Structure formats: C-alpha cells, structure tokens
Amino acid sequence: MRAASLPRTAARAALASAAAVAITVGLAGSASAATSTRTVTDGATYNLSVTAPSTLAAAGQNVTVTGSGFNSAKGIYVSLCAVNGAQGASKPTPCLGGSDQAGTTGASHWVNNTFGGTLPNTSVFGTGGSFSVTVHVKADLGNGQICGDTVECAIVTRADHFNSANRKYDVHVPVTFN
Q1: Other CB atoms within 10 A of residue 135 CB
Q2: How high is the pLDDT of residue 82?
Q3: C-alpha count within 13 angstroms, C-beta hemisphere, residue 40
Q4: Using CB atoms within 10 A of its CB, is residue 110 exposed (0-12), middle (13-18) or buried (19+)?
Q5: Three-state secondary structure string covering 22-50
Q6: How confident is the model over 106-131, as pLDDT tens digits?
Q7: Lowest mean pLDDT among 16-20, 33-37, 145-149
Q8: What's this model's pTM, rounded to 2 decimal places?
Q9: Distance separating alpha carbons of residues 34 and 117, to the nearest angstrom
C-alpha cells in the first residue's frame, strides 16, 4: 500500500479491512463466501461477495461472484486481477482473460444495462444494482504474473471501458490459490 496515496488512518483501515477479508477467505470451509464492501464519497455502498472454496485451484476453477448497490447506469467488469493497495487506490491490472468477447475463457464478465446479454459473458444489472455471475479463475495471469507468487490477486469489480479511469467502482475480495 502506498502511504502517499491515502491518509495514514485511512491506509491503516484499508489494510485492516483487506487483511480481514483475506483471513476470511483463508479460514472458510469449502464453498464458502468471502465478502467486501466499499462505501464511496457520494454515499453509495457497493457490496461484493465471492462463493468459492477457501483456497482456489491454481490450475483453474469457476467461482460465483455476486454484488449489490452498484450504479446500474455505469457498466463494470468482474474478473480476477492483480491489485496494488487499497480499493480505488490504483487500477486493478492485469486481469485474467482481458476482454473475452468470444466467450471462450469465461475469465471476465461485463455487467452493463445497455449491452448486457448481447455478447458472451455479459449481463444486465438486477434490482438495486445487483448481479450474480460466474467467472473462471486460475493463478497464472500470463506474462509471469502469478497470483500469490509475483502479484497479489483479488476478484474485483472495476469500471468498464466507457469509464475506465474511474476508480469509484473498484471493489476487491482477495483470494488465494493452492
């Protein structure tokens, strides 16, 4: 975490929150849910939950990701990404799968009320900015980026390509692989 990007108290709170979520993922039994919540300055609260075994298979497996409270007027990507620092501090990247428009990997999902459901691995938001998607994750992000070895990883939401510089929609649930 870069202390210069957050006030010291906020940085400590973010680190404690991330550690608590990581411990939850690490201690939970099989098919458990780990969650993360982020309240942003305009008062919106984005909730993200991952249902998966406590330790994911490095070779790959499907996980269920659910969310609520998101702004349904703005699209988001849901994927496994390398993360650096607190939620919203820096863009989660690289992400597994990139833009999977062919629908061959299932490694990312686009939730968007304009185009959702028109392409593979896309859907629209439900009531209250909710969604439930399945993504395929594995430890190797490519180009020497290995979750838990060379980079820290999390299941994340982030603003889609129409608003990609906006860090407001970044929510992380840290994960570990065997």
Answers
A1: 23
A2: 96
A3: 16
A4: buried
A5: HHHHHHCCCCEEEEEEEECCCCCEEEEEE
A6: 899 999 999 999 988 999 999 999 99
A7: 16-20
A8: 0.79
A9: 27
pLDDT of amino acid 17: 40
Q: Which residues contact residue 14 at a Cβ distance below 8 angstroms, ignoring those fewer than 6 apart?
A: 1, 6, 85, 86, 87, 89
The enclosing H or E element of 77 equals strand 76-82
Six-digit token string for 128: 């209250």
Short-list 68, 50, 43, 77, CA closest to 170: 77
In the chain, alpha helices (H): 8-27
H helix or E strand, kind and range, residue 174: strand 171-174
Whole-angstrom Cα distance, residue 36 to residue 172?
7
- In the chain the first and final C-alpha atoms are separated, in Å, by 24
pLDDT recorded at residue 54: 83
Q: Distance between CA atoms of 160 and 176, rounded to whole angstroms? A: 25
Non-local CB neighbours of 152 within 8 Å, separated by 6+ positions: 82, 83, 84, 174
